[in-house]
Amino acid sequence: MSITFITLLLIAFFLLIVPAILYNSLVRLRVRVKTAWSQIDVQLKRRHDLIPNLVETVRGYAKHERETLENVTKARIQAINATNLREKASSENILTGTLRSLFAVAENYPDLKANQNFLNLQEELTTTENKIAFARQFYNDEVMRYNTAIQTIPRNIIARMFTFTESDFFELEDPREKALPEVKF
Length: 185
Fold this sequence. Notes:
mainly alpha
C-alpha cells in the first residue's frame, strides 16, 4: 500500500467516520433527554390521577373549604393542559403550592387526618412527589450532559451543522421553594 492511499483513508476516516460518530453521540444524548422528560410526564400523570380522589376525600370533611379545593382542581387542569416544558414546569409548581394548602386545611380536621382513605392517598401522593423529584433530577442531569456536549469542541461543530439546540432545565419558579427551610428548637 502506498502512503498516498493510507493518507486518503485517514482523511476519509476523519471526514466521514468521526463526524458520524459525533453526530450519533449527540442523537443518543438528545434521546436520553426526551426519555428523561417522558419519565417526569409519567409521574405527573400519576399525580394528576391521584388528586381528584384526594380532593373528594377532603371535600367530605371540609365542606366550607371550597376555595382551596377549587384552587387545587384549577391548578390540576392547568397542569394537565400545559403544552411545553416551561408551561408544564410553571403549572406543576403552582399545583405543588395548592396541594400544600390542601394538606394545611386537612390539619384542621382530626377526623380527616385519621381517615384511612385520606392517609393512603396522602402516602401515595408523597411517594409520587418523591418520584417526581427524582425524575426531575435525572432529567436535569441528562439536559446538562446534552447541553455540555453541544457546546464543546468538536461536537459543537456537528451540533451547529445539524441544528441541535439546547434543552431547558426543569427549574423551580417560586423563590420560596429555593429557600432553605428554617429550623427552630
